[in-house]
Amino acid sequence: MTAIAQGVNFQELTLEQAIAKAKAENKLVFIDSYTDWCGPCKMMAKDIFPMKEMGDYFNPKYISISSNAEKGEDGPLVRAKFGIKAYPTFVILDGDGNMIHMFAGGVLSLAFIDKVEESFNPDMAFGNLQKRYNSGERDKKLVANYIKALMGTYTTDVTKMIDDFANSLSEKDLICDECLFIFDDLARLDSPRGKFLIENIEKFRKEVGREKIDNVVKKKFAAYYSNVLGKQRAVNAVEIEQINKQVAALNLKNSDILPLFQSAMSSLLNKQGGDELLKLIKSTAPKVERTERILFLYYTIPAISEIWSKEQIDELLAMIDDNNTRNLIVKALDRQKK
């Protein structure tokens, strides 16, 4: 977008000119590929790139250019050269134009610098991993890291690559930190890999660490309950009871959000218990992570709004500090009235 005095100094250069200037000044090239319609792109331009800390980090080390993927001559060329399909996408090049790293998606606050710093970690830098993979390396750690980095570019469907990788390993080899991503967001609770994770949870806890594994498993149960509340999965009282028993048996750490979901399930099935659930939410909400709380309320409020008064719903909405999520819930409630 435009150059920012205090923050990142985006220069009016073509990609070719930026590479030449970076080489002459012994710097790297940073590319911000964006579109006019992209919300996260606008957030980065308005809130992140103007930060003084961003300027302090980027300007001494990088020749930075901002490239509109759909306008002008250079923007579409940049998009085609790197196979960009999601926005914003960020690309880091060396002075010879070789890709060091690439990733897609807006990142809040100073955490963006951490993402860019992955360029200097050989186990995370996409360019380095791609080069090694394409040269024929197939070490388990390398393949796992390459797939994760490739997923972060949003340039291709990695489903088959993940399946091939998982199928190439023994059950014993699958139980490792490098392979955990296979069982994380990519595997539903009732999928074969989800079941494998639950069945071998003690082995995973020993190999990877209890807190890390329990967090992955907690998210799977939260996703199950969310799908029921969001009508993406049929309401089945027997199945819900079985899932609740499974949660109890696993004794997951830092899982205060799950009793909230279970209480919401009970209210959904019985069409009552609004006062008790509201009281539980108010006492438990401060103990759970912000993202967990927002996710829970996003699915729960519309699903069982009939058991609460308008005043109680307003009280629940006030617990959500994300305007977009709150507006989506209000719209969902309005649709229910029609």
What percentage of amino acids are in beta strands? 5-15%
Strands of the widest sheet, in order across it, are 2-1-3-4
How many strand elements? 4
Q: In angstroms, what separates the terminal alpha carbons?
A: 42 Å
Biggest sheet record: 4 strands, mixed
Low-confidence stretches: none
Q: What Rg, in angstroms, do the CA atoms define?
A: 23 Å
Number of domains: 3
Give the helix/strand class: alpha+beta
Task: Tell me, rounded to a whole number, the average pLDDT.
Answer: 94
- Note the total helix count: 19
> What general outline do the C-alpha atoms trace?
globular
Structure in words:
58% of the residues lie in helices and 7% in strands. By secondary structure, it is α+β, with helices and mostly antiparallel strands. A four-stranded mixed beta sheet has the order 2-1-3-4. A hairpin with a 5-residue loop joins β3 and β4. The mean pLDDT is 94.
Quick structural gist:
The protein is an alpha+beta fold and 338 residues long. The chain has three domains: 15-120, Glutaredoxin (3-Layer(aba) Sandwich), CATH 3.40.30.10; 123-208; 228-338, no CATH class. It has helices spanning 15-24, 39-48, 52-58, 74-82, 111-117, 126-134, 140-153, 159-167, 171-174, 180-183, 192-199, 201-208, 210-229, 237-250, 257-270, 274-284, 290-303, 310-317, 323-337; strands spanning 28-34, 62-68, 89-93, 99-104.
Question: What would the keywords be for this entry?
Answer:
7% strand; 4-stranded mixed sheet; alpha+beta; 338 residues; Glutaredoxin; single chain
